[in-house]
């Protein structure tokens, strides 16, 4: 059987990883400024994470949600405390799309309504409602097409207010990334997020903070939406949560009362996934990784802004984007082939940095040096 062609591939096989570094089968070392698509939060193969998973694996990897799973409670307590949302409740699942799917469904159950506001350039996943709220017609199949989703311009407070004024009583939820990832690293303004909060309060709609990519400390706060100083009703999360072990979740505000049986999952919250997620939070806390993301992120952004050819350096913490100059549209490719550095991209010309939150100043300098070198190479 041959493999389905899912993504364009770099012809590299990674066989080993440690911290912010990965090695191919020939032993060639690469700096990972991409974090396997924002997934690596505490660094590849962190010893504490490996130890917790191995320990759990020896005891039990999986039993269904028909029995008490104490690891879920331990995870909920840690997550509540570290995220600063102790009075929220946790529903565990397996991926970002699944988290958003459940968040949207829950909002509709709660309000009894069927309209959702999402934003231009949003990406929320590939399952039915999550993809319908994603601004990319190419990945929405006919069966997922719906008139339930209203797309508005991102960061446009007036457009948001106007829709609520016209049809606020039909709106079940507003779903928004605190920093759009796939859309090209676009930071939501505080005013925009505060207005979402106000409109949702005024009309009884549910504010869903998609924190799948921008959450889990990456921005320099646990949830990037926290910069606005207002709480969301549901936070969805996944990528950084397991440091590569598949796990997702939604954190649900206390005034929402999902009924028993409304949400469910076979694999969600299994013992092994919880062990990985607990290890991640323990390391984030012990090693001060949220503060590190803020410090190293600021340093990277400041240094990138000093390179005049790079335009629109933007982001927060270790979620950074900048436009490749017209003179060096192959910069991302060159970083990989000539400097052995993985970065992310966003169409058409954005380099996205999503490294481990444990990235050191020396690793940041290695990246900056490579960018400076490439940019200084004359074109032609
Ligand atoms: C903001 C955001 N939401 C949801 C998803 C979907 O997550 P998953 O691929 O785990 O389903 C992604 C994935 O890139 C994302 O960036």
From TrEMBL:
InterPro entries annotated for this entry? Aminotrans_3, Class-III_PLP-dep_AT, PyrdxlP-dep_Trfase, PyrdxlP-dep_Trfase_major, PyrdxlP-dep_Trfase_small
Q: Which domain of life is it from?
A: Bacteria
Kindly list the GO molecular function terms attached to this UniProt entry: transaminase activity
Query: From which residue to which does the signal peptide run?
Result: none
Q: Note the Pfam families from the entry.
A: Aminotran_3
Indicate whether Ribonucleoprotein appears among the record's keywords.
no
Keyword Lipid metabolism belongs to the record: no
Q: Which UniProt keywords apply?
A: Aminotransferase, Pyridoxal phosphate, Transferase
Q: Which CDD domains match?
A: OAT_like (cd00610)
Instruction: Name any cofactors this protein relies on.
Output: pyridoxal 5'-phosphate
| Family named by the database record | Belongs to the class-III pyridoxal-phosphate-dependent aminotransferase family.
Designated name of the protein = Aminotransferase class III-fold pyridoxal phosphate-dependent enzyme
Taxonomic path: Bacteria, Pseudomonadati, Bacteroidota, Chitinophagia, Chitinophagales
């Amino acid at each position: 059987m041959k493999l389905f062609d899912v993504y364009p591939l770099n012809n590299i096989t990674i066989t080993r990883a440690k911290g912010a570094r990965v090695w191919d089968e020939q032993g060639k070392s690469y700096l990972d400024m991409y974090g396997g698509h924002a997934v690596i939060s505490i660094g590849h193969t962190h010893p504490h994470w490996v130890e917790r998973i191995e320990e759990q694996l020896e005891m039990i990897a999986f039993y269904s949600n028909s029995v008490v799973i104490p690891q879920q409670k331990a995870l909920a307590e840690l997550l509540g405390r570290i995220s600063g949302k102790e009075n929220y409740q946790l529903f565990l699942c397996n991926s970002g799309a699944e988290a958003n799917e459940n968040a949207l469904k829950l909002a509709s159950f709660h309000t009894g309504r069927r309209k959702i506001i999402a934003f231009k350039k949003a990406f929320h996943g590939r399952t039915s409602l999550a993809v319908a709220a994603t601004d990319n017609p190419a990945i929405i199949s006919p069966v997922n097409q719906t008139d339930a989703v209203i797309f508005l311009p991102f960061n446009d407070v007036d457009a948001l207010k106007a829709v609520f004024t016209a049809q606020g009583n039909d709106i079940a939820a507003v779903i928004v990334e605190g920093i759009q990832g796939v859309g090209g690293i676009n930071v939501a303004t505080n005013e925009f997020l505060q207005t979402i909060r106000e409109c949702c309060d005024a009309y009884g709609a549910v504010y869903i903070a998609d924190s799948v990519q921008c959450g889990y400390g990456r921005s320099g706060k646990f949830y990037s939406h926290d910069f606005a100083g207002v709480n969301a009703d549901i936070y969805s999360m996944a990528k950084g949560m397991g440091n590569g072990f598949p796990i997702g979740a939604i954190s649900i505000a206390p005034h929402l009362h999902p009924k028993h049986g409304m949400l469910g999952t076979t694999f969600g919250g299994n013992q092994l996934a919880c062990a990985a997620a607990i290890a991640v939070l323990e390391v984030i806390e012990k090693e001060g990784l949220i503060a590190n993301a803020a410090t190293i992120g600021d340093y990277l952004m400041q240094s990138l802004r000093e390179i005049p050819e790079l335009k629109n350096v933007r982001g927060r913490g270790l979620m950074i984007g900048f436009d490749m100059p017209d003179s060096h549209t192959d910069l991302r490719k060159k970083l990989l082939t000539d400097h052995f550095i993985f970065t992310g991209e966003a169409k058409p010309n954005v380099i996205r940095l999503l490294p481990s939150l444990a990235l050191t100043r020396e690793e940041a300098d290695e990246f900056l040096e490579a960018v400076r070198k490439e940019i200084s190479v004359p074109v032609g």
